[in-house]
Amino acid sequence: GCGSDSDGVFHTEGNKLRMGTNATFPPYESVDENNNVVGIDADIAQTIADKLGMKLEIINMEFDALIPALNAGQLDFAMAGMTASPERAEQVDFTTSYATGIQAIIVPEGSEIAAIEDLADKKVGVQTGTTGDLYCTDDLGEDHVQRFESGVVATQALLNGQIDAVVIDNEPAKAYVAANEGLKILDTHYAVEDYAAAIAKGNTELHDKINGVLEELKAAGTIDEIIAKYIHE
Ligand code: ARG
User: Fold this and answer.
1) Does the CB atom of residue 131 touch ligand 1 within 6 A?
2) In this structure, what is the dihedral angle of CA atoms 40, 43, 48, 54, given to the nearest 10 degrees?
3) Which among 30, 106, 127 is the best mutation to test ligand 1's pocket, defined by most ligand atoms within 8 Å of the CB?
């Protein structure tokens, strides 16, 4: 009994708010040693649930499964450092944006790649279904893109010399580079994007509620505080 009834009315299950994410994306979401999903999105989602007097359940899944799961009624909302892109906005509704992301390029130290143009005849790793995947596929063509289930796995392939670069959001890029020797982030970037929470189209009641809380948290400086806990610069 969840999701949309035949009458098109959405029901959240009891007092539970089911949030979908893909926890391979620090500092927005990762899995800690106790197997809990932690990070900026988890903290913001918990604050939203608290404000709404609901219990939060976080469901960790593949990134490209989030929008289908929302539309199948398996999730109430998704927060996954997800870019509020016009293409996705045809499939789901986005809340107000709560953070900014930049598509960054990771290369091995000493790589000859210094700018976006240098990617032209190279093999670039991306996380399947991300905007990085979209941009690279559009700009470089299928043959030059290799898709991985996460940025972590793509970074591993870069370290193993299977690919020449990884295109992914700048904050996880920094985390991957910090966790591994021999990689660097180029001083150039692909695109600046807005992150937002996604909700199934038609679930206007929950959309309004979550949007209202997010606006309130933004105005109170709470979102900035949560982000500052994880991103120091
Ligand atoms: N911002 C990018 C996008 O929306 C990447 C998001 C990946 N998120 C994740 N939790 N793995 O496509």
Assistant:
1) yes
2) 140
3) 127
DSSP 120: T
pLDDT in tens for each of the 233 residues of the chain?
A: 344 444 455 666 679 999 999 999 999 999 999 999 999 999 999 999 999 999 999 999 999 999 999 999 999 999 999 999 999 999 999 999 999 999 999 999 999 999 999 999 999 999 999 999 999 999 999 999 999 999 999 999 999 999 999 999 999 999 999 999 999 999 888 889 999 999 999 999 999 999 999 999 999 999 999 999 999 87
Is the CB–ligand 1 distance for residue 103 below 6 Å?
no
Read off the pTM: 0.94
Angstrom distance (rounded) from CA 201 to CA 8:
10
Number of other CB atoms surrounding residue 102 within 10 Å: 14
Which helix (H) or strand (E) segment holds residue 175: the answer is: helix 170-179
Neighbours of 112 (CB within 10 A): 9
Tell me the CA distances in angstroms from 166 to 71, 138, 157, 203, one per residue in order.
Answer: 30, 15, 9, 36
The alpha carbons of the chain give a radius of gyration, in whole angstroms, of: 18
Whole-number Å distance between alpha carbons of 181 and 178: 7
State the sign of the Cα–Cα–Cα–Cα dihedral 208, 218, 68, 129: positive
